[in-house]
Amino acid sequence: MRAILADDHPVVLLGLRAVLQKDGRATVVGEATSADELWDLLAGTPCDLLITDYSMPAGKRGSGLALIEQLRRTYPELPIIIVTMISNAALLKAMLDAGANGVLEKSFSAEELPEAVLAIMRGRSYLGQSVLAALDAHKAKASESHFNWAKLSPREAEVVRLYISGLSVTDIAERLSRSVKTVSTQRLNAMRKLGISSDADLYAYSKDSGMLS
C-alpha cells in the first residue's frame, strides 16, 4: 500500500514514517508539510492511503474540515486517516462526517497506526482508543446537555448564537448595541473556552452540540 504523509512538523513525519516502515504494510511515497504541498503531491503521486494532520498551513486550499471535505470530493476513493492533537468530541465527529476514514490522536500507541492501516486495507474505518473514549464520553453526556453553557458567559453565548446563525460581527454589534471590538473579543473568548480555533469548527461544534439545528 502506497501512503502519502502530511504534517507541518518534521518530527511527526519522521515518527509516522518510522512506524510504517517497521510495520511494513505501507510504503511512504511522498511527504508534505502544508495543504498546498499536499495537493501538489496528490496530483502527481499515485497513492492508496493519505495520513494527514488536521490543521496545517492552509495556503490556497484551506485546512481542517475544509481540507477534508475538498479531499473527499476530489479523491472520493482515497482512504484518509487524520492524525490530530484535537480531543474535542464534536470536532472529531465532524472529521468523520466530512469524510475521514480514520482518526488518531497524535499521542497514539505504537500499535494503533498499523492497526489503522490494516483496517483500511480491509475496507473498514478505524478510530484510535482515545478518540473512541472521547466520542463515547460525548454520547454519554449528550442526554444531559447539548451544549456546555457553563463555559461561556451569557454575553459570549449570545454572540455565538447570532454568529452561527449567519450574522457578521458588525451585524451582531448593531443588534446588541455593542462595539465591533467587544463582539469580536467575545466571539474569540468563546472559541478559546471551547477549544476551537476556526469559524468552520465553531459551526460544526455548534451543530453537533444541538445549538444549531
Q: Any descriptors?
A:
213 residues, alpha/beta, Rossmann fold, Arc Repressor Mutant, subunit A, 2 domains, elongated, phosphoprotein
Summarize the structure.
The chain has helices spanning 10-23, 35-44, 64-74, 89-98, 112-121, 129-142, 154-164, 169-176, 180-194, 199-209, and strands spanning 2-6, 27-32, 49-53, 80-84, 102-105, 126-127.
Structural commentary:
This protein has 213 residues and is α/β, with parallel strands linked by helices. It has two domains: 2-141, Rossmann fold, CATH 3.40.50.2300; 149-209, Arc Repressor Mutant, subunit A, CATH 1.10.10.10. Helix content is 54%, strand content 13%. The protein has helices spanning 10-23, 35-44, 64-74, 89-98, 112-121, 129-142, 154-164, 169-176, 180-194, 199-209, and strands spanning 2-6, 27-32, 49-53, 80-84, 102-105, 126-127. It has a six-stranded parallel sheet, sandwiched between helices. Helix 1 (10-23) links the parallel strand 1 and strand 2. Helix 4 (89-98) packs across helix 6 (129-142), helix 4 (89-98) crosses helix 10 and helix 8 crosses helix 9 (180-194). The termini are far apart. Pfam families: GerE, Response_reg. One of its GO terms (biological process) is regulation of DNA-templated transcription. GO terms for molecular function: DNA binding. InterPro entries: CheY-like_superfamily, NreC/VraR/RcsB-like_REC, Sig_transdc_resp-reg_C-effctor, Sig_transdc_resp-reg_receiver, Tscrpt_reg_LuxR_C, WalR-like, WH-like_DNA-bd_sf. Residues 2-121 form the Response regulatory domain.
